[in-house]
Design a protein that fits this description.
Keywords: Cytoplasm, Hydrolase, Nuclease, Ribosome biogenesis. It is an enzyme of class 3 (hydrolase). Helices cover 46% and strands 25% of the residues. With 140 residues, the protein is α/β, with parallel strands linked by helices. It has a single domain (3-139), classed as Nucleotidyltransferase, domain 5 (2-Layer Sandwich), CATH 3.30.420.140. Helix 3 crosses helix 4 (116-139). The two termini are 17 Å apart.
Length: 140
């Protein structure tokens, strides 16, 4: 069954989430490390592996907007990453407003009493899951 992949793109990592086979729920699966100042070839290679192994047919990339709706430098970087993802993985990519998803992920982990060190390792894939879940809920 086809799945959708969600990405939370940061300067150091890319959080990855996948939908279930029915497209109802999103689950964080992995955090892929980026190497600042170097091409993202390894990142795209890993994303392609995940996409191929899970029959991914579409990708949703979080678009960080400012609170007034404008797009700043990090939003522009995400748009560029999304365009490159579409070209390299040959899959349709949609942008999804991700305002406050990382903050929401952080609050959830804190309320679950997850240690700071552990939070750091799971926050990106959890944010990716929140981005993807928002998208899945909107298309139902």
């Amino acid at each position: 069954m086809p799945r959708t992949m969600g990405l939370d793109v940061g300067t150091k990592t890319v959080g990855v989430a996948l939908s279930d086979e029915l497209g109802w729920t999103a689950q964080g699966v992995e955090t892929v490390r980026r190497r600042p100042g170097r091409p993202d070839d390894e990142v795209f290679e890993r994303l392609k592996e995940i996409a191929d192994q899970n029959d991914v047919t579409a990708i949703v990339v979080g678009l960080p907007k400012n609170m007034n709706g404008s797009i700043g430098p990090s939003g522009e970087a995400c748009q560029l990453f999304a365009k490159e993802t579409e070209e390299k993985l040959k899959l349709p990519v949609k942008m999804w407003d991700e305002r406050l998803t990382t903050a929401a992920a952080e609050r959830t982990l804190i309320s679950a009493d997850v240690s700071r060190k552990k939070r750091k390792s799971v926050i990106d894939k959890m944010a990716a899951a929140l981005i993807l879940q928002g998208y899945l809920d909107s298309v139902k």
